[in-house]
Specification:
Shape: elongated
Number of strands: 7
Radius of gyration: 32 Å
Length: about 220
């Protein structure tokens, strides 16, 4: 709408401008729809009469809001030698139980489902520090022992929960404590078919508890 047309429309609505300066505020995006609805507003600010179309941009609806970043998936990991050496995943499971890294009541059948490549909704209780889980999964992926069938941290957060049964979150931002490297490498070696399982150094219950206790004291 031109300036002249706006003035004419405003006068038709009974607005008396007199000698007052007229300032038109345009909202190009919403102008046509607003005029069709007859929505021209008039206000006086410090002697300057302002005419605008009164249109306001619609607020975002719930469907337009930013979606939550956390989501659960049934995708899992595929162990590299799952067909040739499925027993290595069992050794992996046994070592984690011995280390008090996963809950002793964890079924080894359920645990192994996480490394078959077949989608599942199984969750495992990880009772060692969160940083140890992050370091372990990073190591296994770097070595090429596991292949995530999706995004590694989304999968990890969907299938591992803490001692309070809460699924882990923000795994990507967790640190990899260097002093854990020896024990993490020993755990990873259980999945290497070229590595003699009997040669992997085991630790007793007291040593396992002491290991994780030291980590918790350093990383609250």
């Amino acid at each position: 709408m031109t300036t002249e047309e706006k003035i004419a429309l405003a006068k038709a609505m009974g607005v008396d401008f007199g000698k007052t300066e007229i300032v038109f505020e345009k909202n190009v995006e919403y102008e046509i729809g607003n005029v069709e609805a007859g929505g021209i507003g008039v206000q006086v600010n410090q002697g300057v009469q302002t005419v605008d179309n009164g249109a306001k941009k619609p607020s975002k609806t719930a469907s337009q809001s930013k979606p939550a970043t956390f989501k659960m998936v049934n995708d899992v990991f595929t162990y590299k030698w799952t067909k040739q050496h499925p027993e290595r995943v069992t050794h992996f499971y046994q070592y984690l139980v011995k280390l008090h890294a996963i809950d002793k009541d964890t079924s080894h059948e359920e645990f192994e489902k996480l490394f078959t490549g077949v989608p599942t909704d199984v969750t495992v209780k990880w009772i060692a520090p969160k940083s140890a889980l992050k370091f372990l999964m990073t190591t296994l992926k770097k070595r090429g022992y596991i292949k995530p069938e999706g995004k590694i941290w989304v999968i990890t957060e969907s299938h591992f929960k803490d001692a309070q049964n809460n699924l882990f979150k923000n795994m990507r931002n967790e640190h990899d404590p260097e002093y854990l490297e020896d024990v993490i490498n020993r755990i990873a070696d259980t999945l290497n078919p070229n590595h003699d399982v009997k040669a992997i150094k085991m630790i007793d219950d007291d040593e396992a508890d002491e290991l994780w206790r030291g980590i918790r004291e350093k990383w609250v």
